[in-house]
Amino acid sequence: MSTTHDVIVVGAGIIGAAIARELGRRGARVRVFESRVVGAGATHASAGVLAPYIEGSSRGPLLDLAVRSLHLYDGFIAGLREDSGVDVEYRRCGTLEVAMDEASADRLRASAGSLQSAGASWLDAAAVRAAERALPESVMGGLLVEAHGYVAAAQLAETLMWAALRFGAELETGRKIVAISGTASGVEVTSEDGSRWSCDSVVVATGSWAAQSGLADPAVHAVRPVRGQLLRLAWQAEPLEHVVWGPDCYIVPWRDGTILVGATVEEVGFDERTTAAGVRDLLGALCELLPAAWGATFVEARAGLRPGTDDGLPIIGPSGVPGVTYATGHFRNGILLAPLTASLVADLVLEQRVDPALESVSPARFARRQAGGAPQP
Description:
There is one protein chain. The chain is an alpha+beta fold and 377 residues long. Helices cover 31% and strands 27% of the residues. The strands form three sheets. Strands 1, 2, 9, 10, 11, 12, 18 and 19 form an eight-stranded mixed β-sheet that branches. The protein has an eight-stranded mixed β-sheet with strand order 6-7-5-14-15-16-13-17, sandwiched between helices. Helix 1 (14-25) packs parallel to helix 9 (334-351), helix 3 crosses helix 6 (153-166) and helix 3 packs across helix 9 (334-351). The longest helix has 24 residues, at 61-84. It is globular, with a radius of gyration of 21 Å. The termini are far apart. The model has no long low-confidence stretch (mean pLDDT 95).
């Protein structure tokens, strides 16, 4: 059996990489196991949108977590650049959610009123077309949230892992962990080839594959894969200034002149294919929202499996096995919630400090439901 590490992180998507870097930054000895390569799961097909007032628009725990994490992002990226020496693409360019009919316009006007404290504002048809000249004349207005933005998701995951390595972490890719069990002195993990490692603590950050970790806890079996397809095109028209959010797609403008278009939401199990139907639907939605997209150059299509839960909340906190902590189930919000999740998990694992925010995302909620207890809000 190999030398004991303080913490083993299973999974090197955006959540696992962020946790590994945060643990290493705080002085822990960290080893990371990833069955494929860094960022190969949901992160690979994420547009990196940072938009809590759209993604978590209804009031509740998810919005609270997302807003709190967004507030951490400037410092998170600045610290990462210092730790890694890499300049991750990150822009707070704002989101512009557009209304194409009266019902949408009424909804977004109401949102603008309730989100004034967050810096949101309603733009009428003329103002929204002045803000984004590629929008069609049929647009009726839009909701501008200047605090929103995006980050290059795959680059972020790779840079977080590079920073973790600079803090002394060890990384093994192509190594699938199939069993996690408690021991008298800590926790033991076993890989597919029978190799075993011991440590003080394990963090399960395997996204949609949480149930394949060998744990019987109801929490990991509550995570299901939800496929999201994403397109990348070279934009040829008037440059976009904001992340543009329409009825059936969103568009993220990168500095290199390409745009990301996302994303489908498909309940297809562990099928990671890109499909003709997915590409067609996204291209149709894009060209209806931005007619100039008919002249864009198709670059690529990607697909990733987002880890969803029935209540739409992530699973963060201690498992039923002493020394094992979960950080999964982030669905479409893994990139946005990465800074906060990393901080909460590091506090819990290294200092046994339980943030009040963990109550709403506790893994124990699934065991309570299974036993017939009241669901958490």
